[in-house]
Amino acid sequence: MNRKVFMERLRECLADISAEEREDALTYYESYFEEAGMENEAQVIEELGSPEKVAENIKRDLLEEPQSSIQAPECMEKESSEEFSSEDFEKHEQYEEYEQKDKSGRIAMIIVIAVLTFPIWITVAATLFGLIVAAFGVLFGCAAGGIAATVGLLISGVALIGMGIGGCISGSIAAGILVTGAGFFVMAIGILLLICVVWICGRAVPACCRWIVNLCRKPWQRRKERMS
Q1: pTM higher than 0.70 for the full model?
Q2: How many Å apart are CA 19 and CA 11, to the nearest integer?
Q3: Which of 58, 95, 111, 112 is the most buried (most CB within 10 A)?
Q4: What are the residue ranges spanned by the domains of the chain?
């Protein structure tokens, strides 16, 4: 038996199935023979067995396959998806309503707590405000006092230097030199004090202002973090 005879007998044995299924089966075995090659036709026929056996196996496989797959109509799928979407929408509305009620409840609770604890937090706020004002007062007082002392020392130093030079000219050289040295010493103290005042005004005052601003911002930052 060669390939041609095998395929003709297989076609005859598959005459009782649909034309589409028969052609699919014949095409499959034709491809099988072509892949094996002409020199291996006898070996392929021996492996497959008789055409009747092959046809029996094909029919059995067709009977075991599901005849049809039941699918829901598109209108039913659309209707179910619409129902699901409406349910989701209702749940979303209920969730938003719950969130609004919960938010209103929290605001009311905060107001009640603020009213009940008014004496406590107003005292704390007044104390903090007093400390801040006192700190600014100390800083500005030190700065103003330092500036006044610096000006006084510089003026005194210049005056002493002038007196010392005058004493040297008038004949009291030793006393003049002593007074002049004292004048330079007083001026040096004034210059050092001026440096301290400049440092306080340029560094300490801005640092204190930043600390106070950060201290006032902390409660609001914590509130934002809790809300987020």
Answers
A1: no
A2: 10
A3: 58
A4: 3-64, 111-227
